[in-house]
Amino acid sequence: MKRIFTFFTLILAAVSCEHFLDEKPVTDFTREDTETTELKSAYSSLEDAVSELNGGYANFKADIYEMNSFLVGDVMSDNCYVGGDGVAEEQFDNMKLTANNTQVSIMWQQYYTLTGIATNVIENLKLMPDNPDETAERNRIMAEAGFIRAWALFDIVRLWGDAPLTLELIPSITAENIDKWYPIMYPARTSEDDIYDQILEDLSDENIAHLESISHGAFQATKGAAYGLRAKVYATRGAKSERDYNAVIAECDKVAGEGYSLVSDFDDLWTVEGKFSSEGIFELHFSSAAEQHNWAYWVLLTEVSGEVSVTWRRYCTPTQQLIAKFDKENDSRYASSIYWGSVPYNTYYPASNYPLAYKIRQKDNNIILMRYADILLLKAEALVEVDRQDEAIDIVNAIRRRAGIQSLDRNMSKESARLAVENERQLELLLEGHRWYDLVRNERMETVMAEATDKNGIPMIADVSSFRRKLPVPQDQIDINERLIQNEGY
What's phi and psi for 155, nearest 5 deg? Predict the structure, then answer.
């Protein structure tokens, strides 16, 4: 039996024990077979494939989406101060990441774990004998695995640019075949364009056709989630001036066609009762069962019997600049996103009145990775780029009406409309891990981060060079793979 070689995860077990989750792939179908290099499916039935696919979903519930996505999306942007006092985490806040940053290494390992599991599922299913009675189920499983791989690769290419891409099953290594397989086990970096091509191949119309159509949030790859991810890919790939924004609009419309809608009360999204709403698209499911706790509530807020209790510095402290942007009297998102309480420290604010992240309030809250408001505002972003500013502002105003704040004049310049959409995305999606990617995607990172200030109003980023749009390749990966080259500037 064979498996995909995920060299990126060789030291994962040694590192992740000190972090919040130890959920690993729940299956391992490898059986030692050193006598042959013939590739055979590791699965004896579709149940084996489903089991490994479920292991892929389980691996979403690890550090990358329970802590690191906030470090990148909110802390590394102008949304939040780091809060916590770990050196690795502070490097995100100050944009001083190094190749030895342990959090960057964890992210690399866990993203490649996701891609490896997904590739295992896809390639082993291809090797199984055809059974017409199982064709539909087999195609669905492969399409869901393709979505998982596309999701992970999209984050990888946004974070690192060129990156290793291994899509083959590796046989048992022998003295006779090591020269053939070594370069595949330890590959050089694949170009961004080729990675994007692979993402779009995994999200092809043919694959999406096999996914289920669901008009509410689900911890499952669905047509709506795939269309939404494809919209983000088209909105991100290449230089802003060269993107096909009509394709972005078309994909966002396909998401709308699946039947999603905004919930009437923004606060409902962040309650346990509000899980899997009409606005949710792809969300990580957690329950009150001890083994299914959402550890992000501990990272960001912490609740004890329904009461907020803080004993150490929480991550993602909203910045003064962010708070100043809110209409505090009328915008319902303000109280739903930021909790003011008493804490035993005064790092950025007085200890008696301190802001905390409030979108993950309990240990059985879901984590929403994609929701309809995000897709609507992404469509608005694309509409501006094709000179349909009035339609873009109509979308922005729909979001603002739900928040209870005044609508904007729909007749504005292209540049003003760009900033209006950017601002609305910041206030609507804060503490959901989007802001950094928004700034980089719209080529605004350098300008915005140069204006980011500390609690005293003093610029806090000494170097906002463009190379910082990408993260450093972890040094521990370069040490084990001589073909890896470090990103510029690190």
Answer: -65, -40
